[in-house]
Amino acid sequence: MYEQEKIRKKKLIKIKLLGINPYPSKIYKTNYNIKKILINKKKIIKNNINLSINGRILSIRNMSKSSFIDIKDYTDNKIQLFYNIKNINKKLINKEYYILLFKKYLDIGDIIWINGKLFLTKVKEYTILINKIKLLSKCIYPIPNIKIKKNKIYKKFKNKEKRYRMRYIDLLLNKKVKKNFLIRSLIIKYLRNFLNKLNLIEVDTPILQNIPGGANAKPFITYHNKFKKYLYLRISNELYLKRLIVGGFKGVYEFSRNFRNESIDKNHNPEFTILEFYISYKNYIWMMKLIEKLLKYICKKTFNKYKIKINNNIIDFSKKIKKIKLFNIIKKYTNLNINENTSLKELIKKSKKLKINIKENENTKEKIIDNIFNKYCKKKIKKPLFIIDYPKYMSPLAKSKIKNKKLTERFELYINGKEIANAYTELNDPYDQFKRFKKQNKKFIDKDFIKSLKIGMPPTVGIGIGIDRLIALFTNNNNIQEIILFPQMK
RNA sequence: GACUUGGUAGCUCAGCUGGUAGAGCAUUACACUUUUAAUGUAAGGGUCCUGGGUUCGAAUCCCAGCCAGGUCACCA
Does residue A131 sit in the same domain as residue A212? Predict the structure, then answer.
């Protein structure tokens, strides 16, 4: 690094001394991108079209009095450039052309603008004969070189730590990585389209909250100097979106960046994105149908097909998603006969064989069931599956079922062993909600939210979809770091 | 948090049971008038993650730490 950077710095100084600005502010017009050139190559040659393009240099081959340069642009296509000493005698050649090309001041990684005409070389490669050239930005830090020689690929930049810490290089060199983020962008775009078609309103709610509510997780704490009080980065936006439903919106959604002060692994980043949306006068049954439509829609729009391969399983998003009751799936995989009436003592007894490890002070029914499910059921789910009939004690924000008050109108969506979404008909009884908050977490009770429920929230269904996990799923990545541009690192 | 694998040149990686730090590509110089990610010759480039220890001698063995990956647990 030291050596090569030093050499390039010297070049930079020389270029400047010779009157060339290595970082010009002027914009040079282009009339093509490389993808467009490759598509229209025959036409371009036929009509003798003058091409102007931008790009980054990938490789340089100097041979005596002529040279070849490969450049790549934002379309991720590359094209070969050519210049020859014959051109030097022409009066047309400007100073910059001479200095950059013949003094060899260009490096791999430099960003240039060129103007020239397309021709076919002796070896039949479509190539641009350079007529004018401008340096747009000098590359000082050498990027890993891209080369294939004798069937060996010298293109690797695959050290994960380096890739994540220097994502700009990763994106530049690894096509797949860039593609993943293009898919991410598409999926979010189509989710928005879908929700907008439903006439939901996109909103922004506070990231800095007085009381971290709506989920059970450790928050990041910060301090407001003027208020002289602690504020919390949101762990969820749920309670704010519900306030908006109280306020009379028919439906709202937010792509919410949430923050949780927990450990990092392939499924968890301290900041992550959840899409939450709430629709009044609907319930969780309706939402299940909507989610089927939503998945089908984004799969089709993004990939132009309904079936995609995930972890060697083909998943067909045009099919109806099956439902199973929580206690039934537990029975299926563990043979354990439990239900919402099972007492804590009984649960502990029955689950003893399953090697569930719960800290003694956290010995609650919801923890034990959660544990059993995570350990024995979750990973077995490959195809999309709705899990329903969660007991009330596991669902502090969900409305109870009419026929069985101990169960709730709630479902979770699992695909490929991962929780993708969590939804329920929202609890809108303020006194019931207050009781449940008290049971769940005495430290943070959002009394203002209770007040909003007292004003009256219409029957409402709400859902949270883990966007990072959803995108990891659709891009067939097992690690969330691959689809978060800048994953958190120490 | 536990276990496990790794950290050596710009990149990818060799380096055996301890004996002067290696390769390919990249870089620099020279040669060669259109090459298939050329070719030939030569050169430069290293805090072998950090700190201790063992030893005449440590990239290598031992201990501690840092950073990262994987698996599991916790957390959603």
Answer: no
Q: Which tens digits make up the pLDDT trace of A297-340?
A: 999 999 999 999 888 889 999 999 999 999 999 999 888 888 89
Number of domains in chain A: 2
Q: Which residue is nearest to nucleotide B72 (CA to C1')?
A: A375
Task: Measure A159 CA to B14 C1' (Å).
Answer: 17
Co-location of A188 and A310 in the same domain:
yes
How many Å from the CA of A265 to C1' of B51?
29
Name the domain boundary from A155, A189, A217. A155
For residue A423, the domain's CATH number is 3.30.930.10
Nucleotide nearest to A147 (CA to C1'): B37
Same domain? For A131 and A187 the reply is no
Which residue lies nearest B27, CA-to-C1' measured? A4
A12-49 pLDDT, tens digit each: 999 999 889 999 999 999 999 999 999 999 999 999 99
3-state secondary structure of A415: strand
Domain that holds residue A473: 176-321+384-483
Whole-prediction pTM: 0.92
- A436: amino acid identity, one letter: R
Bases of chain B with protein Cβ within 7 A: 1, 9-13, 24-29, 31-39, 44-47, 66-76
- CA of residue A266 to C1' of nucleotide B7, angstroms: 21
Which pLDDT does position A274 carry in this prediction?
95
Minimum CA–C1' distance nucleotide for A86: B33
Q: How far is the CA of A180 from the C1' of B12 (A)?
A: 23
pLDDT in tens, A192-221: 999 999 999 999 999 999 999 888 888 999
Question: b/e string for A53-92 if b means 16 or more Cβ within 10 A?
Answer: bbbbbbebeeeeeebbbbbbbeeebbbbbbbeeebeeeee
Q: Determine, yes or no, domain membership for A166.
A: no
Dump pLDDT digits (tens) for A447-472.
Answer: 999 999 999 999 999 999 999 999 99
Q: Which two tokens stand for residue A311?
A: 């972890």
Residue at A335 is within a domain = no
Q: How far is the CA of A457 from the C1' of B60 (A)?
A: 70
A139 and A186 together in one domain: no
Give the sheet arrangement for strand A208-209, strand by strand. Answer: A208-209, A229-233, A221-224
pLDDT digit string, tens, across residues A265-290: 888 999 999 999 999 999 999 999 99
Same domain, A185 and A260: yes
